[in-house]
Amino acid sequence: MGDDREILQRLINSLYRTNKTVSRLDVVLGAESSDFPEELLEIVNLLPPYTYPRQVLCDHLNSSLKGHGWTRRFGTVD
Predict the structure, then answer these.
(1) Which of 6, 1, 14, 74 is nearest to 39 (CA)?
(2) Residues ≥6 apart with Cβ < 8 Å to 57
(3) Which of 10, 19, 69, 73 has the lowest tally of Cβ within 10 angstroms?
(4) Residues 74, 65: contact at Cβ < 8 Å?
(5) Residue 28 and residue 44 in contact, taking contact as beta carbons nearer than 8 Å
(6) Residue partners of 31: CB distance under 8 A and separation at least 6
(7) Cα(24)–Cα(44) distance, rounded to whole angstroms?
(8) What is the pLDDT of residues 38-71, one digit of tens each?
(9) pTM as predicted
(10) How many CA atoms lie within 13 A of 56 on its CB side?
(11) 3-class DSSP state for residue 33?
């Protein structure tokens, strides 16, 4: 699927290309259909049910990535 550091950013970019907010379900389905690595699926599945503006979703994901020590492998999103 390419560089692990870009996987999550590509999903974020595609979800917000035409939407101002996305649901947790949108993110989970997008990650599953993109064949995310197991670790990233774990991060996505930690999201609480909510409708997320882009910055709020990125903050949640970045916090989880940092908490798991996976920013070196997966980077952060904006």
Answers:
(1) 74
(2) 12, 22, 27, 47
(3) 69
(4) yes
(5) yes
(6) 11, 40, 41, 44
(7) 8
(8) 999 999 999 999 999 999 999 999 999 999 999 9
(9) 0.91
(10) 13
(11) helix
Backbone φ, ψ for residue 47 (5° rounding) = -60, 135
Per the DSSP assignment, residues forming a β-bridge with 23 are: 51
- CA distances 61 to 53, 68, 78, Å, are 13, 11, 10
Count of Cβ atoms closer than 10 Å to residue 25 Cβ: 11
Supply 14's token pair.
């595609």
| Integer Cα distance of 23 and 50 in angstroms | 6
